[in-house]
């Protein structure tokens, strides 16, 4: 004799077999979220950090591989989906999009890196002669109370023959010993009307393509010049975005990781994780889901 509960389970099995979906999960997927983003906590710095640049191809011409922008806001678009096999194929869908404002960046330096058994190590850095006030603020904690003399001695190198010779010597060392060349570029934050900040953001951008000598000459040719975003990225190009979220504050484990709620009669709370680890090893593993900032 089969009970009503068995009939329901058989019906659910048939609906799943025919291509239906489950109403909820009981045991599968103890969490929803990538462990690659752990630890989930407040970011140490507001600007995102490029962990790895695109792979270099010496056969292609020299080009820059990154750019800095500021989020202006969000809107939505209606587009036609081109995804064979999807239910939305050849249909229109409404999606949320982010608008990023990208004022031209200014190159103010070049850095050379040498490959060692312990990774990349900086050989030397060459700076431009003239630096804007907005990037000089980046090297001071309190710009108003400072003497504002950053790079004054370095800029005098370009005024003497001995100083120019020293700069050319450093560039020749880069061409001889370095394997990775990156430019130092900063944003023009003054052109952002909605921001009150006066201190520009400075970052290293890797130069890909060509041999090392061409990379050094390519980077040096951009000194004190503006780089628009269309010289780095092309239209309809797939790119990676790095950013820091505004944060959702203190969240519970169900909202933060999407684990299943416990049964109704559970003692001391439902929206929790019942078991956070084994008896032995007698410690909590790093991948255990928990409540905290989201």
TrEMBL record:
<dbReference type="GO" id="GO:0006412">
    <property type="term" value="P:translation"/>
</dbReference>
<keyword id="KW-0687">Ribonucleoprotein</keyword>
<comment type="similarity">
    <text>Belongs to the universal ribosomal protein uL3 family.</text>
</comment>
<dbReference type="InterPro" id="IPR000597">
    <property type="entry name" value="Ribosomal_uL3"/>
</dbReference>
<dbReference type="InterPro" id="IPR045077">
    <property type="entry name" value="L3_arc_euk"/>
</dbReference>
<dbReference type="InterPro" id="IPR009000">
    <property type="entry name" value="Transl_B-barrel_sf"/>
</dbReference>
<keyword id="KW-0689">Ribosomal protein</keyword>
<dbReference type="InterPro" id="IPR019926">
    <property type="entry name" value="Ribosomal_uL3_CS"/>
</dbReference>
<dbReference type="GO" id="GO:0003735">
    <property type="term" value="F:structural constituent of ribosome"/>
</dbReference>
<dbReference type="InterPro" id="IPR044892">
    <property type="entry name" value="Ribosomal_L3_dom_3_arc_sf"/>
</dbReference>
<protein>
    <submittedName>
        <fullName>Putative 60S ribosomal protein L3-2</fullName>
    </submittedName>
</protein>
<dbReference type="Pfam" id="PF00297">
    <property type="entry name" value="Ribosomal_L3"/>
</dbReference>
<dbReference type="GO" id="GO:0003723">
    <property type="term" value="F:RNA binding"/>
</dbReference>
<dbReference type="GO" id="GO:0022625">
    <property type="term" value="C:cytosolic large ribosomal subunit"/>
</dbReference>
């Amino acid at each position: 004799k089969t009970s009503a509960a068995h009939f329901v389970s058989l019906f659910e099995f048939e609906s799943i077999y025919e291509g239906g979906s489950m109403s909820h999960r009981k045991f599968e997927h103890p969490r929803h979220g990538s462990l690659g983003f752990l630890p989930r906590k407040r970011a140490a710095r507001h600007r995102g950090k490029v962990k790895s640049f695109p792979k270099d191809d010496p056969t292609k011409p020299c080009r820059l591989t990154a750019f800095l922008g500021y989020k202006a806001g969000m809107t939505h678009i209606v587009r036609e989906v081109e995804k064979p096999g999807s239910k939305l194929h050849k249909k229109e869908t409404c999606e949320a999009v982010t608008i990023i404002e990208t004022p031209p960046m200014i190159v103010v330096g070049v850095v050379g890196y040498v490959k060692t058994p312990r990774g990349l190590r900086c050989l030397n850095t060459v700076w431009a002669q003239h630096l804007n006030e907005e990037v000089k603020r980046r090297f001071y904690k309190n710009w108003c109370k400072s003497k504002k003399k950053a790079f004054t001695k370095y800029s005098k190198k370009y005024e003497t023959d001995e100083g120019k010779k020293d700069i050319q010597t450093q560039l020749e060392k880069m061409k001889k010993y370095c394997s990775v060349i990156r430019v130092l570029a900063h944003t023009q934050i003054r052109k952002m009307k909605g921001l009150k900040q006066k201190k520009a953001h400075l970052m290293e951008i890797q130069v890909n393509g060509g041999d090392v000598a061409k990379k050094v000459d390519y980077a040096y040719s951009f000194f004190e010049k503006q780089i628009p975003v269309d010289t780095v990225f092309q239209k309809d190009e797939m790119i990676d975005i790095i950013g820091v979220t505004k944060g959702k504050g203190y969240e519970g484990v169900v909202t933060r990781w999407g684990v299943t709620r416990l049964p109704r009669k559970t003692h001391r709370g439902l929206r929790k994780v019942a078991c956070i680890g084994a008896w032995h090893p007698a410690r909590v593993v790093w991948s255990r889901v928990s409540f905290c900032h989201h």
